[in-house]
Amino acid sequence: MPPPGGIANAIAFWEEPAGGGSVVSAQIARLAGGCDFFTALGDDDLGHRSVERLSELGVTVHSEWMGATRRAWTYVDANRERTITTLGPKLRPSGPLPLAGYDLVFFVAGNAEALRSARAARFLGATPRELPTLREGGVALDLLVGSGNDPGERYDGGLDAALVVQTDGAHGGIADGRRYEAATPPGPLSDTYGAGDSFAAALSFGLARGDELAAALDLATRAGAAVVSGRGPYSTQISA
What we know:
Blueprint: H1 20-32, E1 35-42, H2 45-56, E2 59-66, E3 71-76, E4 82-87, E5 104-107, H3 112-118, E6 123-126, H4 131-137, E7 143-147, E8 164-167, E9 173-175, E10 178-180, H5 195-208, H6 213-227
Parallel strand pairs: 1-2, 5-6, 6-7, 7-8
Antiparallel strand pairs: 3-4, 8-9, 9-10
Helix pairs in contact: 1-5, 3-4, 5-6
């Protein structure tokens, strides 16, 4: 990030559909062979381009069309860490949604009725980014997973969650009160954008298909480590 009064010169740039929902759905699609993504997008060029790109990644998008698509600038510094500036309000899908019969639903954002719809799935995972909605929805969660370092994902209890996982980047994290180790990236560090959401998606997928916690964590840590070796969140997500 530039210092006060300074100028930072970018050496490269690219565009992709962003946000936790996009990253989670793309990673689940890689693992499961497809994924339905219920979301909200602006009825504009960015929104429709996002659907096209996610479709290329194996994601079937079910969107509520609203005003303007939210944009974000993600800065990747010399240490390959990312800093994000969002432009515009967060768009959240509204329930009820047709989620009964799904083996896995991962809740990233939406209103309380959308969350209650998600509980109709056999396995429900969620991120603590939407903690007020999780409290309002009042449903039981099979998994709550988020960063232990991001203030926007801090969790101090109070939800009915069967398993709580808090990530700590290259230091691993804590699952069910016990520390686990991170996986080694398969290549040089490129950027960290999407690593945490890919971890959460893979962990949810593993647990939902019946893996023991240790096996699901192995899959999830490999998913997170793979992402940091590629540019952006999608180029190196794992398939197995």
